[in-house]
From TrEMBL:
Comment field (misc): In the reaction, the free carboxyl group of octanoic acid is attached via an amide linkage to the epsilon-amino group of a specific lysine residue of lipoyl domains of lipoate-dependent enzymes.
Database matches in PROSITE patterns: BPL_LPL_CATALYTIC (PS51733), LIPB (PS01313)
HAMAP family: LipB
Binding, substrate: R107, G108, G109, Q110, Y111, T112, Y113, H114, A187, I188, G189, G200, I201, S202
Main localisation: cytoplasm
Name of the protein this chain belongs to: Octanoyltransferase
One GO molecular-function entry: transferase activity
Pathway membership: Protein modification; protein lipoylation via endogenous pathway; protein N(6)-(lipoyl)lysine from octanoyl-[acyl-carrier-protein]: step 1/2
Its biological purpose: Catalyzes the transfer of endogenously produced octanoic acid from octanoyl-acyl-carrier-protein onto the lipoyl domains of lipoate-dependent enzymes. Lipoyl-ACP can also act as a substrate although octanoyl-ACP is likely to be the physiological substrate.
Enzyme active site: C218
InterPro entries the UniProt entry points to: aa-tRNA-synth_II/BPL/LPL (IPR045864), BPL_LPL_catalytic (IPR004143), Octanoyltransferase (IPR000544), Octanoyltransferase_CS (IPR020605)
Catalytic function, reaction form: octanoyl-[ACP] + L-lysyl-[protein] = N(6)-octanoyl-L-lysyl-[protein] + holo-[ACP] + H(+)
Annotated source species: Jiella sonneratiae
Taxonomic placement: Bacteria, Pseudomonadati, Pseudomonadota, Alphaproteobacteria, Hyphomicrobiales
Cited Pfam families: LplA-B_cat
Amino acid sequence: MPVPLGARGRYIAGMDSPIAPSPRLDAATTRFLATPGSPPVEWLTLDGLTDYETALAAMEARAAAIADGSAPEAVLCLEHPPLYTAGTGAKADDLLDSRFPVFAAGRGGQYTYHGPGQRVAYVMLDLRRRRQDVRAFVAALEAWIIATLADFQVTGERREDRVGVWVRRPERPAAPDGSVAEDKIAAIGIRVRRWVTFHGISLNVDPDLSHFSGIVPCGIRGHGVTSLGDLGILVSLPEVDGLLRKNFEAVFGETREFAESTTLG
């Protein structure tokens, strides 16, 4: 799937840090629909493992086409081989062991891990058709993940100071401050160019959690990572995909299969 890289973005919306000085949780968004008459979002799920540079190039090209009005919005679901990505806020001392390839992602945030058993969904939406509100968009992504987890009887939660979706682990030792232990089950990292989003979410279905040990995930110390498998919920990626798509439509609107006559770019 060779496609050319696009130009660098004008600004970046972050991950794992507050997006604006006002309370982040005030932006509780469960519906983030496009204007009436907008075409459905194209949905493509790739089989096997997709290398990171290919995915990044595809996202950049498709985001540019959406901004130009020559392609509809799209969601690209895939798995990567084991790798680390560094956001624009990544700190050198948060890379503990470069046991896997490290890629500069160009998104907001810090270091994260991608690998087999993790569903990555790259979300390319036109905020001009929706709301030109990045905080609300991130809140909508969190609502999408939380609704999907609820279908597996998992309670996902948002946090004021930590973007992403978290689960409480009362069976584990308490956090250093005495609060209930929490683990991150899904990360969010986005970039916005010309009001079109790209990058997106990663949901831990059943990856090798030891692979996260080479980094301080998202620069957050004192909390761990988990997955559906770690929580005792053994499901396949296709099962997760079906619920992700159902809940995406509830938040963002109608989808359709990726048209064979078009390309990501």
